[in-house]
Amino acid sequence: MRIYERYFARQIYLTFLFVLFAFSGLFFFFDLISELDAVGKGSYGFGFAVIRVALLTPSRFYEIIPVAALISAIYVFATMAANSEFTIFRVSGLSTGRALGSLMKIGIPMLFVTYLIGEVVGPYADQLSERVRLEALGSSVSSNFESGVWVKDTLTNDGEGRPVTRFVNVGELLPDTTITKVRIYEFDSQFRLSDVRTAERGRFRGPDHWALDDVTETKFQNVVPNPSDPKDALNPVYRSTLIHLPHYLMRSQLTPQILSVLLVSPDRMSIVNLYSYIQHLQENHQDTQRYEVALWNKLLYPFAILVMLVLSLPFAYLHTRAGVVGIKVFGGIMLGMSFQLVNTLFSHVGTLNTWPPVATAAVPSLLYLVVGLIGLLWVNRN
């Protein structure tokens, strides 16, 4: 980096850390207040509430980083403009293009940190936070159905060379990803019911097996009627066999990561888990719109940092008479909040109207990038 770039970077990074922790502290306070309703239930005390909210902090960092980058850069450039420092840089030969390029260099480390938090730290901390809460409350996780969550599981080869389609009903998903009250309806290649299994509990045995305990299996077999017998609609078409097994190892495409969708919302899942779950839904011919939008948001959201830095640069060209530093920072806060609002709005509207996921995720950033470039052209001409 050149000397002026190191100066810009030091000022922006220090202000960025201050703004980031200030905003996260504010969100920590609000999140803690919202958790107070659950305090006192089971063994969920105030200490558990603090731990849970603290574990949510990385995800808050992920959400706040673009806005914090915008506010910190605006504050630094507005202060430089008020002290005529940026004017001196311009007189010394700093063009708008070079200043913009320098800002992109400064934003790249922030971009990588955002990816690290969003892909590694955040999802793991969110799942751990949910487990802490559920274990303290003595609860389990299930879907909105009283019968639990239903998942389709399709295998081209069940280990015996047969294609199998299953509908799996999981009554409860415990915080340690153990499943209980499991019912499995298995169909053959002709979509005829061939097996019904019930199990008290199950544990995942990688890479693609579930170990089920206390299994009751009902097998259905075709009964070929005797040609000499008179036709009777009441004659049985199937013969059933009831088997009880203490343990059963079932091959399946379902994984705890897929079932963990119940524990963490799509917006807080990692890119790898989202992609895996989308593949699972596509293989089972289910709607993937919501998860594809979340996936593209995860891929493109860190680049919003660079867009925010572009938006901040025009503030360096505004002289003190155009407004004091505080007003410019307030404008930056409003600009950052409007970006978050538009980004969230596009995600929901795009999901409802089945817009292309790439466009749904990219349009807000592109709109604000255009606004930033127009602002640069205007201040450069004036």
What does this structure look like?
This protein is an alpha+beta fold and 382 residues long. It folds into 2 domains: 3-138 and 285-381, no CATH class; 149-262, no CATH class. The protein has 11 helices and 6 strands. It has helices at 3-35, 46-55, 57-82, 85-91, 96-137, 256-259, 271-283, 289-300, 304-312, 325-352, 357-381, and strands spanning 149-155, 164-173, 179-187, 193-205, 209-222, 238-251. Strand 2 and strand 3 form a beta hairpin. The longest helix has 42 residues, at 96-137.
What key phrases describe this protein's structure?
single chain, 382 residues, alpha+beta, 2 domains
Summarize, please.
This protein has 382 residues and is α+β, with helices and mostly antiparallel strands. Helix content is 55%, strand content 18%. It has helices at 3-35, 46-55, 57-82, 85-91, 96-137, 256-259, 271-283, 289-300, 304-312, 325-352, 357-381, and strands at 149-155, 164-173, 179-187, 193-205, 209-222, 238-251.
